[in-house]
Amino acid sequence: MVQVHNLASKMILIFEWIGTIFVLIGGLLITSKRASNPKIREVALFAYIVGTIAFGIFAYFIGAYGLLLTQTVFFFINVRGVINCIKEMRR
Fold first, then answer.
1. pLDDT higher for 4 or 47?
2. Residue range 20-32, pLDDT digits in tens
3. Residue 60 lies in a domain
4. Is 31 helix (H, G, I), strand (E, B) or coil?
5. Which DSSP symbol is given to 38?
6. How many CB atoms lie within 10 A of CB 50?
7. Exposure of 48 by Cβ count < 10 A (0-12 exposed, 13-18 middle, 19+ buried)?
8. What is the total count of domains within the chain?
9. How far is residue 86 from each of residues 37, 73, 78, measured CA to CA in Å?
10. Is residue 1 part of a domain?
11. What band does 1 get if pLDDT is binned at 50, 70 and 90?
């Protein structure tokens, strides 16, 4: 477990928890029975986007560049998903 020594370290760990919470919310929504609704998918993907941004900030500050790369790729995948949902809702 990471030991927290100062305020900056505590702030960094907050990003870890924000990422965790939003990725879990996105996962629950995307696997729900209502996930066929594009609006539900859009909300799930936005939750994933918030989670990936938070995890990306966390990864940068702890020097976990593999995790940062993964979160960057997931961010763009989720943005693509939101764009597809918006296109589907316009039809």
1. 47
2. 999 999 999 999 9
3. yes
4. coil
5. H
6. 19
7. buried
8. 1
9. 11, 20, 12
10. no
11. low
- 79 inside domain: yes
Domain-located, residue 2 = no
Q: How many helices (H) and strands (E) does the chain have?
A: 3, 0
Residue 55's CB: how many other CB atoms inside 10 A?
25
Structure tokens, 9: 């370290």
Helix axes 38-62, 65-90, angle to 10 degrees: 160
Tokens of 2: 């990471």
Cα(34)–Cα(37) distance, rounded to whole angstroms? Answer: 6
The token pair that represents 60 in the structure block: 């940068």
Altogether, the residues listed in the chain come to a count of 91
Neighbours of 73 (CB within 10 A): 11
Q: Which residue has the tokens 């993907």?
A: 45
Query: What band does 73 get if pLDDT is binned at 50, 70 and 90?
Result: very high
Q: Which domain holds residue 20?
A: 7-90
- pLDDT tens, residue by residue, 11-61: 899 999 999 999 999 999 999 999 899 899 999 999 999 999 999 999 999
